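ok trying this again, last paste got cut off
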Amino acid sequence: MRLDKLISQMQLGTRSQVKEFIRNGNITVNGMVVKKPEYKVDEREDNICFMGRELCYQEYVYYMLNKPSGVVTATKDKQDKTVLDLMQGAVGRDLFPVGRLDKDTEGLLLITNDGALSHNLLSPRKHVEKTYYVECEGTLTKEGILKLEQGTDIGDENPTLPARVHSVKRSDTSYSLELTVTEGRFHQIKRMIGAVGGNVTYLKRISFGGLVLDNALAKGAWRALRQEELEALTKQKKEKD
């Protein structure tokens, strides 16, 4: 790989800025100053440093974002702030969100540049579990829970796949629950709750496959996945294959 291409992929600057760094002698390869942007390097074997700091190349990167309400799940948008606008300073090129959360939905969103992992997590054939915390207006009966768990008619050609209802809490005019689904239909949770006579007032995704939202992560904040979290996601993939 060209030296300037590799360093720009690490987001140390634009391609022109990176070339300037190289020509100014700020980059060493295996202890030797290299001033040619086109110099060929082995990103997995060569020791590359920027002003004495070793650079570790990663082809794929993985981040957990706690998406706030009011932000759209997109890479670009002409009107609204996107989830990638929140990822300032994140290392990695061609980042994208895996799946989508509605603009008013909060919670766990995986950001990566690993297309293969994204495909496997989102494939309808994989039935990857997604769990949401839901607050609703209305009442939830035993019949309503049964309807959610057996498959719900939400107006599509086929009813939803069976869901799992847990952690139900009720008051006179409202209730909350955690709802685990294995699909990703348009406005699915809101439509399912609507089909049993409720109205969603707050929605937050708390887990996706083997990945669980870090409660210490503030709204709008992000961090790189820990190794065990990444292994949980890849384990999910292997189990579904």
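PB: full thing came through this time. The chain has three domains: 3-55, 63-121+214-240, 130-208.
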